[in-house]
């Protein structure tokens, strides 16, 4: 499950704008590589929407089926706003529904037209070796 925690307005190249929903997955415990201590975190992802601002605002807190996973991508630079540090990343966080992650199994139909050769069966009920 993921939860809608916020929304943001984004601008297209043609000057028009749209809203993206900010999704957050469940809490996860991660062990620090530097200190060895655990800390709590949650994965976040953004998905575009066709909603207006009022609808996006009303959706905050709503939960949806699915999960957020790490997807490899072309390297890009990212600015950490708290520290001002610029880093290079080669992954992004992506939302997907459980149906995409685990596709439903489809029933496979087998048609068998088997015709038994009655000569191989005993007609007197006694098992006899075949020569």
Biggest sheet features = 4 strands, antiparallel
Task: Order the strands across the largest sheet as they lie in space.
Answer: 3-2-1-4
Average pLDDT number: 84
**What proportion strand?**
over 45%
pLDDT < 50 runs, ≥5 residues: none
**Count of domains:** 1
What structural class do helix, strand and pairing data support? Answer: mainly beta
Count the strands? 6
Shape: elongated
How many helices does DSSP assign? Answer: 2
Percent range for helical residues?
Answer: under 10%
Query: What is the radius of gyration?
Result: 29 Å
For the terminal residues, how far apart are their CA atoms? Answer: 66 Å
Order of helices and strands: EEEHEEEH
Task: Provide a descriptive summary of the structure in words.
- By secondary structure, this protein is mostly beta strands.
- The chain has one domain (2-101).
- It is 8% helix and 47% strand.
- The chain has helices at 53-59, 98-101; strands at 2-11, 17-31, 38-48, 63-64, 67-79, 86-96.
- The strands form two sheets. The protein has a four-stranded antiparallel beta sheet. A two-stranded antiparallel sheet has the order 5-6.
- A hairpin with a 6-residue loop joins β2 and β3.
- The longest helix has 7 residues, at 53-59.
- The protein is elongated.
- It starts with a strand and ends in a 30-residue tail after the last helix.
